[in-house]
């Protein structure tokens, strides 16, 4: 008997097609479908064990999160955190009347952060949790825009052309903010001489329509801090010369949870009068699973009243502000758990360990003749390197990234932003869980793959430049 060639002939026999999911015969049960559609709802029910096994097997095809050195997002929490996560997965953060204690814990968290970031009076600041730092950034930007509009209206001036000043290496959430809320983005290009937004020639970008300047504590491309104090000093000079008084929002997605513990003398936060608001990711170096960010304003005057909605609970009122409505409360509880679990000393030890691993990797990679460091991981535990000019015409960093991916390691290569788009870098993000032992194993793989690529006698063929990573 000849083998069937029509894929539909396999249906019901545990062999899937491009449009169907097949059930492993080990899990088959009498009367249960063995072939389920991928893109349509099945007609019949499945046993929970069956549905679980299908989804579990599909998710298994994802990469190993511990070996993903492209992402800043946390990939590990301890067993007690996982238990707490499971117990609180049904809590809706926006329903403060039904979950008043979760709402109270949210307030504790952003008050803790206000204190950590040196607010003058942490108990009289205002903040909120968000889905992630992107939403937090948008709320910070929206507050800047509303404050600018109110001031302009009080002066009888136009509010039609707001702009915001950003580094060209800014994260894409700020491009979204400018698009969604109709604010002109003024990008200050980074260069080899000025590798971050550092206040250089800031007067060329700032004018009376500037709602604020964004300073990044840990640039996504490289992990480098933008010097907030220098940016503030440049804005002070502009104010003295022109009368244009511009506030700062600090996008501290990563660095706002590193600097207070590991670089406490670095002045970047509410100690600078121009810093109106600070945002961070709880799910990055806040050490929580994905789904939580934070934004805090220096005081209640920095957040326009019309952005705050009052929700009644326990006979009182709770201020709430967010772009999202229903959202998980579990991650807020996890953040508070981590604050209690680690305390300042614990956060310092965890973050310092990550910094030491990053700096160890940077030192060792700098010793390889193929590479030149862009930065060394001394800010946040992130660093990038370039292929040394003239080293080879046989391979690129994209090829090295491909070779490492075959071994399970995700180490992205990508072009720098405009004005440096001809520069390609490779970047490693060290998170809690990347031990010295794992780092040593990664370093051995990098050396092995560089040796392989160096032995090539002809260039690796390629059609166009591959795009393997997006910010």
Automatic annotation (TrEMBL):
Keywords, ordered alphabetically: Decarboxylase, Lyase, Pyridoxal phosphate
One GO term (biological process)? L-glutamate catabolic process
The record, for CDD domains, names:
DOPA_deC_like
Instruction: Kindly indicate whether the keyword Lyase belongs to this entry.
Output: yes
| InterPro entries, A to Z | Glutamate_decarboxylase, PyrdxlP-dep_de-COase, PyrdxlP-dep_Trfase, PyrdxlP-dep_Trfase_major
Q: Which residues carry this modification: N6-(pyridoxal phosphate)lysine?
A: 284
Name any GO cellular component annotation.
cytosol
Task: Tell me the domain of life.
Answer: Bacteria
Q: Name one Pfam family in it.
A: Pyridoxal_deC
The cross-references to Gene3D superfamilies, in alphabetical order and at most eight, read:
3.90.1150.160, 4.10.280.50, Type I PLP-dependent aspartate aminotransferase-like (Major domain)
Its catalytic activity? L-glutamate + H(+) = 4-aminobutanoate + CO2
Give the required cofactors: pyridoxal 5'-phosphate
Which residue stretches belong to region Disordered?
1-45
E.C. numbers: 4.1.1.15
Under which main EC class is this enzyme filed? Answer: lyase
Segments crossing the lipid bilayer: none
Bias (Basic and acidic residues) occurs at 29-38
In the record, the note on similarity to other proteins reads: Belongs to the group II decarboxylase family.
Instruction: Kindly provide the name given to this protein in its UniProt entry.
Output: Glutamate decarboxylase
For this protein's source organism, the top of the classification is: Bacteria, Bacillati, Actinomycetota, Actinomycetes, Mycobacteriales
Name of the gene encoding the protein in the UniProt record? gadB
């Amino acid at each position: 008997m000849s083998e069937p060639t029509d894929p539909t002939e396999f249906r019901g026999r545990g062999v899937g097609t491009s449009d169907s999911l097949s059930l492993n015969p080990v899990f088959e049960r009498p009367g249960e479908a063995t072939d389920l559609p991928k893109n349509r709802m099945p007609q019949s029910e499945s046993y929970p064990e069956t549905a679980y096994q299908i989804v579990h097997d599909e998710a298994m095809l994802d990469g190993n999160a511990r070996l993903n050195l492209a992402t800043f997002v946390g990939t590990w929490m301890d067993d007690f955190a996982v238990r707490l996560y499971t117990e609180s997965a049904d809590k809706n953060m926006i329903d403060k009347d039904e979950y008043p204690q979760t709402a109270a814990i949210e307030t504790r968290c952003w008050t803790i952060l206000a204190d950590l970031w040196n607010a003058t009076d942490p108990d009289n600041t205002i903040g909120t949790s968000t889905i992630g730092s992107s939403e937090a950034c948008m709320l910070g930007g929206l507050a800047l825009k509303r404050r600018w509009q109110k001031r302009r209206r009080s002066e009888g001036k136009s509010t039609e052309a707001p702009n915001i000043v950003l580094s060209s290496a800014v994260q894409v959430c700020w491009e979204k903010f400018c698009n969604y809320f109709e604010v002109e983005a003024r990008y200050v290009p980074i260069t080899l001489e000025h590798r971050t937004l550092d206040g250089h020639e800031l007067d060329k970008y700032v004018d009376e329509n500037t709602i604020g300047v964004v300073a990044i504590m840990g640039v996504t491309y490289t992990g480098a801090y933008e010097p907030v104090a220098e940016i503030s000093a440049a804005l002070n000079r502009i104010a003295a010369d022109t009368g244009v008084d511009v506030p700062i929002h600090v996008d501290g997605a990563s660095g706002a949870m590193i600097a207070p513990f590991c670089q406490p003398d670095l002045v970047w936060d509410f100690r600078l009068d121009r810093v109106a608001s600070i945002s961070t990711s709880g799910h990055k170096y806040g050490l929580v699973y994905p789904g939580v960010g934070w934004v805090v304003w220096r005081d209640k005057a920095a957040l326009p009243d019309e952005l705050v909605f009052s929700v009644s609970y326990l006979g009182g009122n709770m201020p709430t502000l967010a772009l999202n409505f229903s959202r998980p409360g579990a991650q807020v509880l996890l953040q508070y758990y981590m604050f209690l679990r680690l305390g300042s000393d614990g956060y310092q030890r965890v973050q310092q360990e990550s910094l030491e691993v990053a700096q160890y990797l940077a030192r060792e990679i700098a010793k390889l003749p193929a590479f030149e460091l862009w930065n060394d991981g001394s800010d946040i535990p992130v660093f990038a390197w370039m292929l040394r000019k003239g080293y080879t015409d046989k391979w690129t960093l994209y090829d090295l990234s491909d070779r490492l991916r075959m071994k399970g390691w995700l180490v992205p290569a990508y072009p720098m932003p405009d004005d440096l788009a001809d520069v390609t870098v490779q970047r490693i993000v060290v998170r809690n869980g990347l031990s010295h032992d794992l780092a040593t194993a990664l370093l051995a793989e990098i050396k092995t793959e560089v040796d392989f690529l160096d032995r090539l006698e002809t260039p690796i063929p390629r059609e166009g430049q591959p795009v393997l990573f997006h910010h």
